[in-house]
C-alpha cells in the first residue's frame, strides 16, 4: 500500500473501479538522493486512508463548505487533500503514506479538516489526532 500514494478511487457511474495516481502530491523526502544533508532516520511508514466526513459545519454563505484535510506529523504538514466544493459530506477517498521519524518520545499524527476560501485564510472545521509510541531505531 505504501509503495506509492494512490487514491482509493471513486467508482465511475458505469461501475468501473478506476484509481487516480496522486504521486504528483508526494514531496521529496528531506535528505533524499538529491540532498547533501544527512538523511533523517525513519521508524517506518504510516498508511492513512480518508474516505469521507459527515455533518460538517457550514462556513460559506451558501450554507455549505469547501472542505479539504491536512495531515501533520509532530506539527509539520505532510499531506494536503483535494478540495471538495459545496458540500457538508465530502467523499475524498484518498490514501497517503507518511514517513514516521524515529524518536525517543511519542509521535503525534493529526488530521485537520478545513474549509477552503478563495480570498481568505481557510476556516477550521475539525480535527482528530493519534499518538504513536516510541520507536527504537539506531542510525
Strand order of the largest sheet: 3-2-5-6
Integer-rounded radius of gyration: 17 Å
Q: Strand portion, in percent? A: 35-45%
Helix/strand order, N-terminal first: EEEEEE
Tally of DSSP β-strands = 6
What does this structure look like?
This protein is mostly beta strands and 139 residues long. The radius of gyration is 17 Å and the shape is elongated. The chain is 0% helix and 38% strand. It is built from no helices and six strands. The strands form two sheets. A four-stranded antiparallel sheet has the order 3-2-5-6, with no helix packed on it. A two-stranded antiparallel sheet has the order 1-4. A hairpin with a 2-residue loop joins strand 2 and strand 3.
Provide a quick synopsis of the model:
The chain has 139 residues and is mainly β. Helices cover 0% and strands 38% of the residues.
Which keywords apply here?
38% strand; two-stranded antiparallel sheet; single chain; mainly beta
Please render the helix and strand layout as text.
Elements: E1 42-52, E2 67-73, E3 76-80, E4 91-101, E5 107-115, E6 123-132
Amino acid at each position: 500500500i505504501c509503495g506509492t500514494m494512490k487514491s482509493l478511487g471513486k467508482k465511475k457511474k458505469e461501475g468501473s473501479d478506476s484509481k487516480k495516481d496522486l504521486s504528483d502530491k508526494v514531496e521529496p523526502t528531506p535528505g533524499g538522493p538529491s540532498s547533501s544533508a544527512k538523511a533523517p532516520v525513519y521508524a517506518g511508514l504510516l498508511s492513512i486512508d480518508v474516505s469521507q466526513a459527515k455533518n460538517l459545519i457550514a462556513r460559506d454563505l451558501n450554507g455549505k463548505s469547501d472542505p479539504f484535510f491536512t495531515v501533520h506529523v509532530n506539527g509539520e504538514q505532510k499531506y494536503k487533500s483535494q478540495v471538495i466544493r459545496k458540500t457538508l459530506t465530502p467523499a475524498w477517498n484518498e490514501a497517503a503514506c507518511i514517513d514516521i521519524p524515529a524518536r525517543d518520545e511519542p509521535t503525534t499524527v493529526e488530521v485537520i479538516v478545513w474549509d477552503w476560501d478563495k480570498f481568505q485564510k481557510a476556516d477550521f472545521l475539525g480535527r482528530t489526532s493519534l499518538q504513536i509510541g516510541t520507536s527504537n531505531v539506531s542510525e
